[in-house]
Amino acid sequence: MLGFLAVATVVCAACSASNGKNSGYDDTVPASSGSSSGGEGPSSSSGNIGGGSSSSSGTTPECAANVVSAKRAEVDIFVVIDTSGSMQEETDQVKANINDFATKIGGSGLDYRVVMIAEKPQALPIPIPGFTPPGICVAAPLGGPSCGDNAPVYHHIDTDVGSTDSFDVVLAQYPTYKAWMRPSATKVFIEITDDNAAMPFAQFDTQLLAKDPAQFGTSAKRKYIWNSICGWKKGTPVMSATKCGTAENIGDQYQQLSQLTGGIVDSVCEASYAGVFDNLAKGLVTKLGCEFAFPKPATGTADPDKIVVQYTKAGGAPEALTQVTDAGKCASVPNGWYYDNPASPEKIVFCPKLCESTGQDTSGKISVAVGCKAPPPK
Questions:
Q1: What is the dihedral of CA 94, 95, 96, 97, to 10 degrees?
Q2: Would you state the pLDDT for residue 157?
Q3: Which end of the chain has fewer CB atoms within 10 angstroms, the N or the C?
Q4: Domain boundaries of the chain, sorted by first residue
């Protein structure tokens, strides 16, 4: 879990007129005539960015700043459970661990939502001793009362998911869950089954991307991750022909989709899913925890060329981080960051080394200065 504070800040800045320049910023932008352009956030405070040498008038060129809260990366999570008769114990394990999972990813600062795609338990006209109807109800705090929703954080689509039709159900239920998705959110699927998919994974991938490229991405740049809790046997290579003890199938179609999208493969046969969901949470935080939403001013749009990202160590002064053109430059720039899409950015992404170093600082802060001309990316 990342150590630095989960609340980042956006600094919406207008620079005072001056002949000088401070370190890393272009301070020749005309001063704002009123309140700052602002960004999203519940609170704000004034401040300054910069602090170079004094000008001839004796004043120090600075960027007058308004500081507001910023959002961490958004993630829309879909939990798809095979609720056939052979999956009741596994379903119970999901129920027992999903709240801890949500607490862990929420504690990292990720802005998450969960959609459960699985059958709810059906009341029997006549109770049968020793028989538990298949299905799942998620308790509070994630779930709502009486097996209901807890909007906007949690929704439950009550539908039968058979042994081999998870791909089909996800595609068929798109009209139901599309209104709950956020375009800037990474979509994360968690498949839980002891069998395999009847539909080839490549066919599912093609059809899902076609539903809405703005939500799911394209074949060149997918915006979704598929995680598989399936018949894979721990200690064997992914796609091994050896299934775990209680599984019906290794679930190779799901495993191949996880490999394609950078997801996790874990075993459905585990007696406890505490470790399974812990691995999922760690994977999400590692992959998405060092992503920050591109700042959105109250009016207009922020200029990507006037963004400066800062990191303040505990007890230290703000340090301007280095923008790089893309992830390929990260290896040579320890404190680098980049845009997910330079032409139309939705996220600010930290390079792995920066993510690791800032994550060890439990009191560090991340800020984003908007409106100050930044150095060109390396």
A1: 50
A2: 98
A3: C
A4: 8-71+292-370, 74-123+132-288
Name the residue with tokens 């505990």.
314
Q: Which amino acid is at 86?
A: S
The arithmetic mean of pLDDT across residues 288-295, rounded, is: 83
Strand-pairing partners, residue 293, are 347
Instruction: Give phi and psi for 366, each to the nearest 5.
Output: -110, 135
To 5 degrees, how large is the angle CA 138–CA 281–CA 191? 60
Identify the pLDDT of residue 63.
Answer: 52
Question: What is the pTM for the complete model shown?
Answer: 0.75
Q: Which two tokens stand for residue 24?
A: 């890393």
Average pLDDT value for the chain: 81
What average pLDDT score do residues 126-137 get?
75
Q: How many CB atoms lie within 10 A of CB 116?
A: 24
Report d(CA 169, CA 158) in Å as an integer.
11
* Selection from 279, 222, 260, 307 nearest residue 11 by Cα: 307
Q: How confident is the model at residue 374 (pLDDT cuts 50, 70, 90)?
A: confident
Residue 14 has pLDDT above 90, yes or no: no
Q: What is the CATH number of domain 74-123+132-288?
A: 3.40.50.410
